[in-house]
Amino acid sequence: MSTYTDRIQPTDSGIATYLENLLASKYQIPTFQRDVVWEKENVKKLWDSIYKFYPLGSILIWKTSTKLESHREIGGIKLADNFSSNEYQYILDGQQRTTALLMSIHGGKIDGKENFDPTLYVDISVDFTEATDDVSYTKRFLFWDEIDDMDGQLKINIERYKRYKQGLIVKLKDIKCDYDTIEDHLLENENNYKNLYKKQLKRVRQIFDNYRISFIELRGIEVGEVCQIFERINQAGKPLDIFDIVVAKTFRSENKTNNISGFYLRELFDKFKKTIPGSQYASIDNWTLLQMLAVVVKLEFPEAAIQNITDKYLNELKTEHIEAVWSNFKIAVAKTFNFFDNCLHIKGGRLIPYRYLYLTITAYFYRNHKPDYSFLSKYFWYYSFHNSDLLTNTTHLWQHIYFVNQEKANSTYSFNQFDIDKNSIRKSFYSYRGRLSRAILSLYANHKPQDWAKPHNDVLSDVYYLFTDKPNLHHIFPVNFIKQSGIASQIECDSLMNIAYLSQITNLKISDKNPLDYLKEYDEPGLETVLRSHLIPTIILEWSRADALPEHALTIFIQERVNLLIEALRLKLEGIEFNVFDMGNRTDNIYL
To answer: Global pTM?
Structure first.
């Protein structure tokens, strides 16, 4: 019976034995390991430490019966792919060192450095002086591009190439595999074969014979703990994502002999995203998509271990469960994206008020052949704008999923009273993470705002979003105009009630002009309709035509726009009890 003392076991291995076992796939590097960064200087320092018999630090090995997806090659070096066992040995920490050791001896290819040969050579004519010497390793350990004089211009390379031909610069691999031949070659070509060369050659040979690499072996570790371990030992790097673990854990190799198909979740996600070209929702992150998948698996297999969407439960996703729901899951997700994109006209996921809406709406569409888009629209606007945050945790999430599934099952459902505070709308400002901010911008987008200069063009086209990393938002009362005129406070200036979507060209043309002036340039038949598509009160057009701004003009304008927004919501939530209040309507507030 295993105990906590069995979880960590130190051991060691010779370099040659370790690399041979790696090539034979007795060790595996799981695919969630990050890409190797190959730096010549670091590789030389690694071998200098070995040359001086310094410790390299332990390589962390996870021993488990869990089958994960692993790399089939390292730097172009093929690993054996027919290895199977009751216990696998995964390298959790030490991939960088392992790859450097393997490629230094066996060569290979490095991404981005296709013409570079990573095979390492040793110049045995460089004497070992003292252990504290920290310079000679740059001359002792060499790559081929430091030896071969390709252009005949580097004198130092010419000298090195001569020593290479004399057998004084040799491959590490040759010392490991063909030591006697190297020694014979030296005796044949060097008349004054010095004890120095022999001494240095033997010292390198002793590395392969005697240098031990330390390992720490972990047993009894669950997959969920691996994320935390990996993050803690890689504090300077990117934390391990649960998606990487699930991909590795659910991976299945193809076996044509036994008619077993392969399974690779990352590839499934990537292929699915490519089926929705032109939509900004194709760039959804894998973590959110994984949580959407977990919700569907829980709906299909309520007895399964997927009881939530946290890392602990995502880790329990099974390959067979994903395969069972995949076809209907893709349909549900595609319908969710289409609902956001073409029904609500929200051109981009960054405006979805709650990330959990992806999950709840996918749950609604899953195996739903007769969705009620009127219900779904009410659901979206109700929870996006309700004065209370009602979808901020997983308890809310499952309550919502139960609620939407009631409608899907044609059961009785009802929305509670809808509460909205005018002051919270009035004081909302642009925030990428703000729920109410994104809800307001989504409502603006939903009305398909038209371009002021080209009234028949929608501002928020797919092409428009393709060329901007966030919505092109314009202050209706420009910032500098407000500062120079002193007509309003900074709070009023930055309120989303003073914001509208505009094309970049129109935005630049308006710049910091007085709204009375720039509106005159667009005051053609149909401008009132254009303003209404932005939920902009036409009173500002009346002021422009009268060529006069009243006192507290922006305050009046904001209040009028708040009213327009609330009336737009009232129409969308028809049939739901609608409660409007104003927490700003107090004596200590400027809005009276």
So the answer is: 0.70
